[in-house]
Amino acid sequence: MNSRYRWSVALILFTFLLFHQADKMVISPLVTPIMEEFQINEAQMGAISSLALVVAAVLYPFWGYFYDCYARPKALALTSLIWGITTSLGAFSPNFRTFMLARASTGIDDSSHPGIYSLLSDYFEPKLRGKIYGLMHTAGPMGFMLGTILATTLGQKIGWRNIFIVTGGVGIVIAFLIFFGIRETPRGGSEPELRDFQEISEYRIDWQAVRNLFKNKSLFLITLQGFFGIFPWNILTFWFFRYLETERGYTSQQSMMTMLIAIAALSVGFLVGGNLGDVFFKRFPLGRVFVAGVGMVAGAVFLYLTFLIPVERTDLFFVLMGFTGFSMAIPSPNVTAILHDIIPPEARSTAGSIRKLFEDGGSAVAPFLAGVIATKFSLHQAILVISIAAWAMCLALFAPLAYLVPRDIEALRETMRERAAQETG
Question: Is the domain defined by 212-424 classed in CATH 1.20.1250.20?
Fold first, then answer.
């Protein structure tokens, strides 16, 4: 496969992830004018966000299976088109009820990411997947910042409705870019055993493959790890600004500076973590598990040290928060790559959707749990205790993975060798 073309595919998919994340985040800075226009309270506004999350979670199994059954670029183009249409509908909503329905419908396309990683796994061989997944993960923090900038710089000038038209329009443009710019590639075509064949048989998921996923112990552990692993991310995302303002006395400018440092550190951490995972994976099968585990330990240590910094030492707090964000980002691309190291190509999107479904469960539980602890103690205690406990749980789940993953990698390699023999015969 032409190297330039496959990197152009990666660029298009990165663009989708970047602007899709920006579209999801753009509503946060626009909450006040939306509430004022529709004359609604915080509970009603919160219900809008929750409904979109519920819709996305419910549709994860559907999208996962859909991507494994049909041409993934066409499915992604459909996803992007839905993003564009549903976001734009919110701009034309005449009242709160229709706006709530429109925003809830934006969750339809939010469960599409496993299909992207499945497609990329067939464009890039195993030894490069950590690098490419690390790049894709940077779209998260960068999209968060892009959405914030769009809303804060353009929101007052053109109004919140026109912001939604802009981001929705981008989704429609990207849909055409994906439809005409990305070709489907055979599932398993980048695996070492099959990549030298000009043509290979078409492999699609079936119900037996789905049943096998639920029997896979490594997938179960990765999925359970995802439930707990999302806790630190969601607690910090949801409560960190309030912690900085109420318990450290930071101004809005200082809080924004801290967030900028964290976003930059996260982006670098994703890239470095993915590359390190590839380097160690080439040397031994447990390479990615090792790198992810080190990242979790480092994240817990740096978060603990960061929260020990006195309030007046803002400079040192900024530095250590950067190290915390960098360390937190290291496991993510490696966990995604581990999943694709052990799951057959035709079932990777479904497996990824199962994992994301459980992560969304953790996303829903974490902020509430932190809030309960904060009312009795403090946000400082809530963030620190829950985050470190979650990482400890993830490390405990990684221990049996250290035994299972090499075996599962070899099982997949054997399956690929059998398919190669069938292609030869």
Answer: yes
